[in-house]
């Protein structure tokens, strides 16, 4: 309440009124120094570049592997266009007769592709109460706003690292296509939701649950260096578990079984395994192997403090009878369903034959989690289905009781376990648009195996792959509501794989 004219007020009340006048006026870390136009206490809200925070956080988050290594280019438009040389010239006979070179000799021309990438917008919304900004907090950052900015930066970078690997614009129209999709999927515009995307390209190989070996990586590097790919890979990304298995493989085969590292103290460091970092020798030299935790997608369903395991702010509520259909169909029926989407799609499935004992056939339970921009709904758990090469699981979710989902995360759990154990042991196998499973039949074609990861062999060169960035890393204050300071941490950009054939992905590698 404002004081009347000539009314006497206390010092505390005057301080409170001054704080109210300064609301929404400061940027950065609310240092009390006026900013923006005029520099007064009533200056408008303006975004602030905190690029230094981004660099600092990226160096302290050791779990980030792809983002620090990814070549980056600064762009000025929301649609970044570039040209790719597809062919330097036709494969014509280079020999000519003496004095020839006119009509007797054919002309050759280079071939170019014009490509583009749309800039996407990523943000992390954070809020700090007015009380928290006025008192000291325990920890390295005494300022609550600085602490929340740092934590928000790390959260946004973690999400971006996941999307850099696995983003899918077909599922979420606001997202960009991740590097994995751009390499392992074909150029056809036809999406098959039963395999979580377009048909697979020639830039990938399915190991069907086999362990990764150095010999397999040697084989892939030789393939990439050879014609017609002419690649020069300089990084191999894999999950820490696959990395550990590769260390064990090197030790078992008698390579680098024991090493003493000098310059690690007076006595050195004695290691058992493959030393501080594995390199795979390729035709053009050693290629480093990088442990990338976020390349693995086999995550459990999201947990929450709420009893329903739903995001606190999500309005998504499943129907009382959430399934319209949950059964298995024969391979012929599955193939007919695929052909109904498009006649040119691959109709095979990836399940093993019944009784194979490989872990990729038998009883499975599924967990479906609807997601929108606000949050996620409570998990929908299916009954057990017996899947194999001639029994393809089929599900059809009933319309949600409240809320509208953008897409649905799908998890699979081996065995006919209890609901609690299913939620604990289920692993993410993919995401589909809501329209592809809510009110529509969705089949699990079985091309994603449990307890398996992917390995990315790539060429981190700007002529092959890059991240197009628009503007700096920005902190944008929002209007204060509910006695809290709110702000967005914003990053604009998108990755682009210019020449997919110079990269390779090994799928379903045993962890």
Characterise this structure.
- The protein has 511 residues and is of the alpha+beta class.
- The protein is built from 10 helices and 23 strands.
- The chain has helices spanning 11-21, 51-60, 66-69, 130-134, 144-166, 179-184, 214-225, 240-252, 331-341, 419-425; strands spanning 48-49, 72-75, 79-87, 111-118, 120-129, 204-206, 235-238, 258-261, 269-272, 279-282, 285-291, 323-329, 362-371, 380-381, 385-387, 392-397, 407-414, 427-433, 442-443, 452-458, 465-477, 484-497, 504-510.
- The strands form 6 sheets. A 6-stranded mixed sheet has the order 6-23-20-7-11-10.
- A hairpin with a 7-residue loop joins β8 and β9 (269-272).
- It is globular and about 105 Å long.
- The chain starts with 10 loop residues before the first helix and ends with a strand.
- Mean pLDDT is 82; it is low at 24-43 and 256-262.
User: Beta-strand level of the residues, as a percent range?
Assistant: 25-35%
Main sheet: strand order: 6-23-20-7-11-10
Distance between the ends = 63 Å
In round numbers, the mean pLDDT is 82
Features:
511 residues, alpha+beta, six-stranded mixed sheet, five-stranded mixed sheet, globular
Briefly summarize what is shown.
Helices cover 20% and strands 28% of the residues. The chain has 10 helices and 23 strands. The strands form 6 sheets. A 6-stranded mixed sheet has the order 6-23-20-7-11-10. Strands 1, 2, 5, 21 and 22 form a 5-stranded mixed sheet that branches. Strands 13, 14, 15, 17 and 18 form a 5-stranded antiparallel sheet that branches.
């Amino acid at each position: 309440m404002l004081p009347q004219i000539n009314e006497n007020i206390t010092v505390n009340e005057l301080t409170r009124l001054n704080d109210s006048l300064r609301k929404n006026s400061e940027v950065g870390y609310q240092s009390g120094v006026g900013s923006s136009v005029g520099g007064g206490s009533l200056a408008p809200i303006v975004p602030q570049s905190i690029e230094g925070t981004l660099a600092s956080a990226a160096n302290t988050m050791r779990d980030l592997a792809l983002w620090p290594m990814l070549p980056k280019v600064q762009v000025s438009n929301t649609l970044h266009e570039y040209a790719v040389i597809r062919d330097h010239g036709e494969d014509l006979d280079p020999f000519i007769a003496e004095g020839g070179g006119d009509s007797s000799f054919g002309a050759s021309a280079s071939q170019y592709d014009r490509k583009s990438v749309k800039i996407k917008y990523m943000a992390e919304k954070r809020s700090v109460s007015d009380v928290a900004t006025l008192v000291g907090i325990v920890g390295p950052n005494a300022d609550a706003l600085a602490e929340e900015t740092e934590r928000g930066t790390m959260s946004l970078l973690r999400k971006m690292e996941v999307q850099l690997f696995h983003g899918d614009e077909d599922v979420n129209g606001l997202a960009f296509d991740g590097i994995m999709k751009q390499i392992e999927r074909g150029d056809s515009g036809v999406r098959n939701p039963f395999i979580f995307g377009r048909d697979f390209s020639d830039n990938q190989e399915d190991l069907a649950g086999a362990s990764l070996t150095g010999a397999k990586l040697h084989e892939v590097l030789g393939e990439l260096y050879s014609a017609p790919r002419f690649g020069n890979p300089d990084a191999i990304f894999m999950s820490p578990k696959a990395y550990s298995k590769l260390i064990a493989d090197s030790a078992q085969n008698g390579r680098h079984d024991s090493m003493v590292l000098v310059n690690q103290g007076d006595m050195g460091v004695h290691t058992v395994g493959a030393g501080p970092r594995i390199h795979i020798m390729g035709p053009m030299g050693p290629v480093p192997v990088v442990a990338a935790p976020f390349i693995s997608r086999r995550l459990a369903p999201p947990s929450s403090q709420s009893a329903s395991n739903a995001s606190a702010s999500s309005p998504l509520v499943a129907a009382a009878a959430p399934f319209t259909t949950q059964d298995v169909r024969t391979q012929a029926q599955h193939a007919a369903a695929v052909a109904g989407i498009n006649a040119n799609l691959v109709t095979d499935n990836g399940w093993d034959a019944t009784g194979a004992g490989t872990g990729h056939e038998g009883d499975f339970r599924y967990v479906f989690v609807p997601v929108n921009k606000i949050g996620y709904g409570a998990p929908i758990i299916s009954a057990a289905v017996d899947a194999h090469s001639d029994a393809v699981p089929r599900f059809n979710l009933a319309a949600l009781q409240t809320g509208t989902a953008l897409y649905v995360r799908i998890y699979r759990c081996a065995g006919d376990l209890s609901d609690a154990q299913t939620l604990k042991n289920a692993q993410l196998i993919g995401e589909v648009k809501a329209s592809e499973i809510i009110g529509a039949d969705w089949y699990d074609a079985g091309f994603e195996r449990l307890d398996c990861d992917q390995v990315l062999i790539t060429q981190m060169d700007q002529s092959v792959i890059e991240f197009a960035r628009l503007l700096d890393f920005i902190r944008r204050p929002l209007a204060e509501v509910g006695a809290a300071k709110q702000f967005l941490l914003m990053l604009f950009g998108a990755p682009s794989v210019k020449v997919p054939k110079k990269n390779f992905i090994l799928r379903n590698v045993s962890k």
